[in-house]
């Protein structure tokens, strides 16, 4: 335990890592953080010296060359490598270093056979595609391969690759394998080379290449993982193994001495030093100069990697013990830990400061990682989840068989998608990792967070009495109607006396437009761009336009307001070039009409990002069919994770009778369903709960509903009765309820100010979470009637309309 260090770090934090502010950063295995001193040193260096493109005679070029040579030596010293035996090849990142090795081995006459460890990062796995044969081994497999005396000799050159530390769970693999695999050479088999991926290891441990006989032939790493900056990698090559790298075919500027192209084709590789023949093109010389500063400053701030190793081991042990100790009231563990513990003595050689885990509820069901990440991000924790580019590690930790992975893939599972539980198995892990500037407070806060939201503290659940909440008040009316003409932008309230048209795809003019990124064509959303809330559209039927204002501080050169014709006549749209823009909304490809540069300029300036307004062709003739993203849930009994904090008893919502999930509906931009409804009584109940903690009460607007219902007698409120409705009637119009609306932390954005808060997401997470998803409000769609009445030809609803619940679900 290193209290001194921790105290030092605490005082260091404020000065050196001001960007942390109130963030709790636990993704050091993704990248650690750069210090302010490093950035200042780099800036001073850059602004007080004239650095030119290296390898030329000018003084500025010479200066760059000299600095690079010094820093190359500095890198070797950092890893205790003797420049007599080692060389450093600067590459973009660890992956580029691995690729360089693979490119060379592929050119061997007989090809090469590749052996890699199960815990390998994806970048290491990919090498197998260049090999004539490959094997993926676990520890036992490696041991067998290394110790088997009577095995048939390998007939080709072998490349043996493994990570010094798994990026997934932080496990450190035996470095002794390097020497042992080299010893195989002396047994008369063709040469075995070793490729060590030290990327994860070096960030919190001293890589020591001092013993030449135990050092890998090739070592790759990325410097941002040690210093936070610059984004640069290295391939450290043992010189006497380096020749093989020159087998690669490609050469670029910088790696050749002479090239003939006209009449004859001939070239000579530079061979003065190894790195010269491998560093294609202009070196990342500014980054290398930054690396020089990074090495110096790191030493000043932290003294040695060994100190960092001690400190981070202490912290991750605390984190491990903390998570491990969490128990549900029925004494089942909250966390399933995939990383090794620190209970034996020499654990520091076996485990890096990473804790990989999953969360289960008290009945042993998995809690979705993506949902935990959302809640964590509201609480300003920075962690990582998913497969973490470690296919073998994740499959082993979670017992996922290849056929299951394939089946999950068919079922829609991808890197980066939301759903992560298939057939009762979770597909990814959560990873919290600490670094040199982490503190005790960081890890304690994280353990408390997991405890606060995921430990179920009561064994006895309230007995569910469905009669109390499924009772429906009989005095409901439409309190307000709101449309969102531009997806994710501000709402437009419909005035009380206006009869507003209802269409199969939703309320008229709701999500008629959207903003798309000019580069990617992706629809923008408020979750990523909170300022979109300040874009306020209103519909002006007199002038036949959508008027759009920006409610923040608009840049001086944009008009206060712009107008967009309501008419979809193409004459009003952009004419030159493509009139249609290919865009994606929720993964569905759609074609949209675009507008003039003036209009796009307005949006691009106020949001400070290059975007364009887009509109979808009317009629739904094009492939404008998106799946309604409704939530299916299983029987109520296994749904409940929380019931204790809700006033009264609570019956979880049951899914709609029909399987709406696969039904295609002609709607698009409203993401989920044609119409979203919330109940004032539920909001009041939620706000009562928030009030108890002193949190910020939620305004109805954060839920971005189309319809807010309210009951006229305030004293007979029935919160969440909407969960039980099957269909409702608003004045003359019938609507089918499609299920509860799943929520993300977008509801934390104040629609007036675009500022974020933790509420109401935090309280909802405690009171309305089912199978780790959070629900508030209901989806619904209009049911067309064909009875020849005026109301069936032109269905409308208005504020003040009486609402009747036609049918309640069981
Ligand atoms: C980060 C990491 C990589 C990939 O590094 P890049 O900088 O993305 O090339 C590879 N292996 C391990 C073990 C890592 O931690």
TrEMBL record:
Return the Basic residues bias intervals: 624-635
Record keywords: Molybdenum cofactor biosynthesis, Pyridoxal phosphate, Transferase
* N6-(pyridoxal phosphate)lysine modification, residue list: 225
* The protein, known as: Molybdenum cofactor sulfurase
Please name the gene that encodes this protein.
hxB
* Source species of the chain: Venustampulla echinocandica
Function, in words: Sulfurates the molybdenum cofactor. Sulfation of molybdenum is essential for xanthine dehydrogenase (XDH) and aldehyde oxidase (ADO) enzymes in which molybdenum cofactor is liganded by 1 oxygen and 1 sulfur atom in active form.
Give EC number(s), comma-separated. Answer: 2.8.1.9
Q: Which HAMAP family does the annotation name?
A: MOCOS (MF_03050)
